[in-house]
Amino acid sequence: MPEVDPLGAGEVSGTVETPGTLVEVRTSASAALIPTIRAVASDLAARADFDLDAISDLRMAVDEACATLVDVAAPGSALRCVFDVREELIGVHAEVDVKGAGATAVSTDTFGWRVLQTLADQVELEADGARVGIRLHKRADAQAT
Amino acid sequence: MSAADSEYGHLIPLLEEYSGLAADDPKRERLRDELVTGFLPIAQHIARRFAHRGEPLDDLAQVATLGLINAVDRFSPEKGSDFFSFAVPTISGEVRRHFRDQGWSMRVPRRLKDMHVSINGAVSDLSQRLGRAPRPSEIAEQLGVPVSEVLEGLEASEAYRSSSLDEMLSSEQGSATVGELVGEADAELDRVDFQEALRPVLGELAERERTIVLLRFFGNMTQTQIAEQVGISQMHVSRLLAQTLDRLRSRLDPDTRTG
User: Fold this and answer.
1) CB-based contact (8 Å) between A121 and chain B?
2) pLDDT in tens, B90-149
3) Window 45-64 of A, Cβ < 8 Å to B
4) Distance between CA atoms of B169 and A90, rounded to whole angstroms?
């Protein structure tokens, strides 16, 4: 009697990520590499069995966060993006070095920030002078906002 | 063509009348509707011939209808040919062009295209039933396939270039409440400080894109709820929203990111 496994739970390629997984993506702080990062975001969310709205929201939120940071990044610096895949939630921390002290800060009074606030369940801006970061998280169920 | 003659015979005089009308004749629109509706089975028949090639039948039927509209508009009875020998190649040509222009942006195996169509169907069923967007595991269960195949199919969907068919075909919005919802979202937009920068850029968007952006970011609606109101799929909303955000970002940068 062959084993039937309709949900594919036993297949390595299709299994949902174990909660607690950390994934770090580090690229040059270049807009051209953002599609790579957002592809990672949406892949992680899909494998963590997020609903389709939440997958799409997270993808766009990561896109927006990275675009915002690349804009203020010091030339030649890196964009570091860490994904924390937990039970029913993915946390994202993206960060860049900025162009020296007194550099243009990221404003939260913009449409871009509104987009982040809407797409993510929670979003915070972190700035300590030398670095600017955006920390956000998204729950697996987009409806429950 | 005798069977067709009996079925469509009453339309032939209307076709002659239509082609003789001046461009601004008020009768044109009503006559055109009647002709398109009358000949619709031909378009649907042609659409079905192209089914199972990885494009949703609904889309194909829409394209075929567009071809039919073109055929009705361009047909001139005085040239002596009959309508069918003009309309059939016109409609088939439109559908072929759809496959060429509006389809997949890279080579995607047939199996994945079929999966894309199945997923789309399952997403719409499940959204209705659950009242929210489904998860990949729920789609897999509905289709009776492993989750891994759904994940693969979703990934392949990223390579699917959304057609702008909806924009070409219907100017009227999906449901009657869309206008009200947009009105409420618009009032919310009035309350934000960046509205002066955003409004002109929103004004450059097509109506559907503007509606989707307003409902998502100022109307507090999910993509699935928007899809239902506007009458397109969740995946289509997702694509339109991502494209539009990208566009808005490039248009807004100079205004909002300096100083």
Assistant:
1) no
2) 999 888 888 776 556 556 677 777 888 889 889 989 999 999 999 999 999 999 999 999
3) 46-47, 49-57, 59-60, 63-64
4) 39
- Whole-structure pTM over 0.80, yes or no? no
Q: Are B107 and A117 in contact (CB under 8 A)?
A: no
Rounded CA-CA distance A84/A34 in Å is 18
For tokens 């009768």, name the residue: B27
Nearest to A113 by CA among B192, B124, B122: B192
- The percentage of residues in chain B with a pLDDT greater than 90, rounded to a whole number, is 34
pLDDT at res. B165: 40
Cβ-based contacts of B258 with chain A (< 8 Å): 104
A22 part of contact set with chain B, CB < 8 Å: no
What residues of A are in contact with residue B140 (Cβ under 8 Å)?
Answer: 6-8
- Pairing between β-strand A122-127 and β-strand A89-97 as defined by DSSP bridges: unpaired
What mean pLDDT is reported for chain B?
83
Task: Return the SS3 of A138.
Answer: strand
So what's the ipTM on this one?
0.84
For the segment B76-85, what is each residue's pLDDT rounded down to a tens digit? Answer: 887 767 898 8
Q: Is B192 exposed, middle or buried (0-12, 13-18, 19+ CB in 10 A)?
A: middle
CA angle B202, A140, A120 (to 5 degrees): 35
Number of Cβ within a 10 Å radius of residue A10:
10
- Are residues A121 and A115 in contact, defined by beta-carbon separation less than 8 angstroms? no
For the record, the structure tokens of B75 come out as 């047909």
Letter for the amino acid at A7?
L
Res B228 pLDDT > 90? no
Q: What is the pLDDT of residue A44?
A: 96
Strand pairing class (A21-28; A122-127): unpaired
Interior CA angle at B154 toward B156 and B247, to 5°? 80
Pairing mode of beta strands A78-86, A89-97: antiparallel
